[in-house]
Structure formats: C-alpha cells, structure tokens
Amino acid sequence: MLNIQRITLGQLETNCYILWQEDPGTVVVIDPGDDIPTLTHTLGNRQVAGVLITHAHFDHILGLSALKGKPIYVHALDFDAMTDDEINCGPRGGASPYVPATNAVAEGDQITLAGMTFTVLHTPGHTRGSVCYRCGEDLFTGDTLFVGGYGRTDLPGGSWPDLRKSLERLLQLHGVRVYPGHGESGYIA
Questions:
Q1: Which of 121, 101, 104, 109 is closest to 170 using CA atoms?
Q2: Residue 56 in contact with residue 82, Cβ under 8 Å?
Q3: C-beta of residue 117 within 8 angstroms of C-beta of residue 14
Q4: CB-based burial of residue 2 (10 Å sphere; 0-12 exposed, 13-18 middle, 19+ buried)?
Q5: Predicted confidence (pLDDT) at residue 181 exceeds the cutoff of 70
Q6: Distance CA 83, CA 26 (A)
Q7: Residue 16 pairs with which residues in a beta bridge?
Q8: Which of 139, 150, 157, 186 is 20 to 30 A away from residue 171, measured at CA?
Q9: Which tens digits make up the pLDDT trace of 34-44?
Q10: 24-132-135-177 Cα dihedral, nearest 10 degrees
Q11: Structural domains for the chain
Q12: Chain-centroid distance, C-alpha 56
C-alpha cells in the first residue's frame, strides 16, 4: 500500500509529496518546494531514498538544498534548467541555492526506490521536460494537469500544442488518482 503525505510549500503553494510503502522511515520525495524549514521538519529522521522532479521550475526544486547527496531524477530536457534561473524562472539576482540533478529520466523509464516503482510519462508542454510519475494507480502530474485545469505555457520551454497532446494522453488513463503540483487531488474518470 502506497502512503502519501502532501505538504504545501512556498509562496506559490507547491505540493510536495512524501511517499513510503512498508517502512515509514524510508521515503521518496516528489517536488520539494521552496520552504526548507517545513520540509526538513516534516521529514524528521526519515531517510530519503530519492527525489523525483516533475519539472525544473524554481518552485518545485528550491527545497533540494535540504536533500543534497540524494539521487535526484529529472527528465533530460529539464536537466540544465535545474541550475539556470533563465529557464527555471527562478528569482533574479543573487546566488540561487540550486542543486543539480544526478539522474536523467526519459519516457517509459522505471525507477524503483524504497520498494516503490515509478513509471515515467514524458508530458511536455508546461516545460520541455515535464513528466508525470505513475506508481500503481497514483499519478503525480506536477504542473501538467491540475484538477479542473492545467499548467501555463507562456514560460521558457512552454508549448500549448505539446501540452494539448500531453493532456489528451493523460485523459486516456482511467481510474487513476491525480496528485498535481498545486491544488487538490482528484480522479480521472
């Protein structure tokens, strides 16, 4: 059974998910937003087996500095954005506390961490390297798909035609529970 803890982090209220299966002391983190004190307090003494990034916008990655040394997975097309303010839309001026990814993922990859297997679905449109991670009937969509909406396409790497194709693909899935990057969870009927 997949256990999912959602915490909302930062000014843009990004959903960060902490997942575990059998051992609550070993977890996977999806999209650690920009509120390190809340993230570290919530994690407590739990061990992080890995970090999955749905896309490399700053509000989904700024918490990575609290998780240095852990495996960090992001699509190859967003790999450079992890440390580039121009692409990740990060704060302008001054040093940003960015942490580079350690592992590039692609469509169809399967990642097993802490006894959980995640399948990568490349869903470009919000960014070139946007992905969803599927674990059983749970789908972590980042900013590709929200309950009742979808991510914007006017930022660097955004494309409405690509996003439309990605949304059409996701709507072919039935009975999956959607865990978006912002807002509440819901089902694709």
A1: 121
A2: yes
A3: no
A4: middle
A5: yes
A6: 27
A7: 7
A8: 157
A9: 899 999 999 99
A10: 90
A11: 3-188 (3.60.15.10)
A12: 8
